[in-house]
Amino acid sequence: MNRSPLAPATFPELPVITGVELRIARAQYKTWDRCDLTFVTLAPGTAVAGVLTQSKCPSPEVEWCRRALVLGQARALVVNAGNSNAFTGSRGRDAVEAIAARTAGHLGCQPSDVFVASTGVIGVPLPIDKAEAGLDAAFAADPCGWEDATNTIGTTDTFPKAATTSAMIGDTRVTLVGIIKGSGMIAPDMATMLGFIFTDAAVGAEFLQAALRTANASTFSCITVDSDTSTSDTVLGFATGAAGNAPIGDEDDAGADAFVAALTDLCRQLAQLVVRDGEGATKFIEIAVSGAESDRSAHVVAMSIANSPLVKTAIAGGDANWGRVVMAVGKAGEPADRDTLSIRFGSIQVAQGGMVVEGYDEAPVAAHLQGQDVEIGVDLGLGEGRATVWTCDLTHGYISINADYRS
Amino acid sequence: MNRSPLAPATFPELPVITGVELRIARAQYKTWDRCDLTFVTLAPGTAVAGVLTQSKCPSPEVEWCRRALVLGQARALVVNAGNSNAFTGSRGRDAVEAIAARTAGHLGCQPSDVFVASTGVIGVPLPIDKAEAGLDAAFAADPCGWEDATNTIGTTDTFPKAATTSAMIGDTRVTLVGIIKGSGMIAPDMATMLGFIFTDAAVGAEFLQAALRTANASTFSCITVDSDTSTSDTVLGFATGAAGNAPIGDEDDAGADAFVAALTDLCRQLAQLVVRDGEGATKFIEIAVSGAESDRSAHVVAMSIANSPLVKTAIAGGDANWGRVVMAVGKAGEPADRDTLSIRFGSIQVAQGGMVVEGYDEAPVAAHLQGQDVEIGVDLGLGEGRATVWTCDLTHGYISINADYRS
């Protein structure tokens, strides 16, 4: 697979997070010449939070994490690439339990301290023997760096995706690093979105969970490649506490706002990297809706535009076809009034008050659409609600990847 | 544009509907060598009913029809092809009013007896001078047949789409003919779905409206090409009464059930023809969902599958990728239990009770997917709710048509 034209030039410099150790191994879930098992050990006392797919047909890994999150503590993360283990009945559940038990045996912790995520083909039970052998090999291996771990969690990703940020909590600087994989919300049956965030901040599990939910609402929940939601989407956050800041237990504690802002910044970077690796993507599209009756309503309208095949193909073609934006607003089902609707591409107003602007000149809009970064602004003219979402264009590349995937 | 590979071999033989006269003319809404204005006169006393787009940004034609339908009577239908007149502010409203007034002048009827529908590019006001000259030319022209009228309402359609059926009301046979255009629910900005149904049955307008709503729910509302809903979708039904049957005023009258059944049959034929002309379509897909908690819930799940780009591209590639069906069920948001879920392709069961069937053999499924007609069956195993919907595959043809349309 060619590297996405929207990929950053290089993998970022990422700091060590004290209390986090990365290792990789070859479980050979598929016949391929690469590592496909990532094993992360976390210092005792690490707090954990997570947001998981809302699919009604989730993988057993998702169900496992959902239960384990209740306890709020983590000692290990295991990520399998090449097999999602989704829709595999009791054999899938057995595999997850076996991985947790084997890991707990190695580390001398409880199975419920072990978090598991898998990505790959749906419907094939994860082979327990390969998982156990892979875990044993990883446990015996030397620690590795972020780039190796990021490559190992990937599947159809065309580049490794990671980001970092930091925040001051009182006088203490805390550091956050996130790694993520995914080429679509789901893309082929090989592209679940899995994201893992590590920080040395001392934060309580309950606060971490609230912070991750808040960050998620304006970041991961605001991206779409193809409107298809995975059975396995998982974002987990781990906080080792090694930075030694005054622990944050709730939102009123000093540094709480700074931490949430840093976490949100990191999640936005990671989310946008997933869009930049969207299957077949040649353009990165930001859609900003304002003037809606509520923020929720603005989000629905923005996602209706972001998921419209006609809008996405128009942008792929560099076509300033704003009529398709009108269509997508109209079909969203949210309050909208044609006669107060305004639309811009980049900074160029194209429609206002329910019709095209006087003396509309398509040339500057067409020039904006020639770039890799496209911005669509819609003002509904009804209220104060706003939302911003990110997507990519829909191209022949998407069809080629998905129509020819297993055949 | 090449004729769709899913098109019927020939245009059907269609009977005359007494009380309906068809004429066509060249309004030259675009620079093209074809008729683009269709003018239908209806005998005095003709009842009318309609279902219109639920878009929040409807065209002025849709708003006009919605108001005129309240009166329940029609003397004329005018259809413009090449310009949808949508999102054109007060100038668009002026154009519709001018068309109704000019037609009323020709026929000596009320403007509210005139129904107007337009399809084509969004955002360009329909030129009133061209519309009026076209109407005058049509009024002076000789009547034409169904095929000419069907071709004239079309835009990016690759074949003219029409169907007929009949029903016995008491001892009287009544006849129904429908014509339709559209290559997507909306396809490019040139493919609104417009459907027109004509019958010689004597039925009251209120009953006709109820019958059309009933028929619509299981036919036009059950098709999707690309999930994008037009600003202009319109289906109108006209009943001239010329058959002389005992008039049907409500659902308890003799023949009411037979009429609704015939109308539903006709609507289903027309709806399926639109899917068969779906942009870039190479396969016709029927999706039947059973075992849902309600019919409504089954419909939502079926449409989630039908709109999934990953399901549609898998079928385009002849790929028996049932994991994508699981994904689409899971993301629908309706009650579903992975462990009671069953999936079949054609008559071949692939998954049952939350996992792949014992000894699953992909070969017969792959063979089914090689055909032009593909059937996906999903049983949720929860209740008695069922729904069937129709769609087409998603191919390079769709991208070519829509990414390169105006550029």
Automatic annotation (TrEMBL), chains A, B:
Pathway: Amino-acid biosynthesis; L-arginine biosynthesis; L-ornithine and N-acetyl-L-glutamate from L-glutamate and N(2)-acetyl-L-ornithine (cyclic): step 1/1; Amino-acid biosynthesis; L-arginine biosynthesis; N(2)-acetyl-L-ornithine from L-glutamate: step 1/4. Keywords: Acyltransferase, Amino-acid biosynthesis, Arginine biosynthesis, Autocatalytic cleavage, Cytoplasm, Multifunctional enzyme, Transferase. It catalyses: L-glutamate + acetyl-CoA = N-acetyl-L-glutamate + CoA + H(+); N(2)-acetyl-L-ornithine + L-glutamate = N-acetyl-L-glutamate + L-ornithine. One of its GO terms (molecular function) is L-glutamate N-acetyltransferase activity, acting on acetyl-L-ornithine as donor. Substrate binds at T155, K181, T192, E279, N402, S407. It is found in: Cytoplasm. The active site is at T192. Pfam families: ArgJ. The record marks T119, G120 as: Involved in the stabilization of negative charge on the oxyanion by the formation of the oxyanion hole. The record marks A191, T192 as: Cleavage. InterPro entries: Arg_biosynth_ArgJ, ArgJ-like_dom_sf, ArgJ_beta_C. Its EC number is 2.3.1.35, 2.3.1.1. HAMAP family: ArgJ. Catalyzes two activities which are involved in the cyclic version of arginine biosynthesis: the synthesis of N-acetylglutamate from glutamate and acetyl-CoA as the acetyl donor, and of ornithine by transacetylation between N(2)-acetylornithine and glutamate. Heterotetramer of two alpha and two beta chains. Belongs to the ArgJ family. This is Arginine biosynthesis bifunctional protein ArgJ. It comes from Sphingomonas japonica.
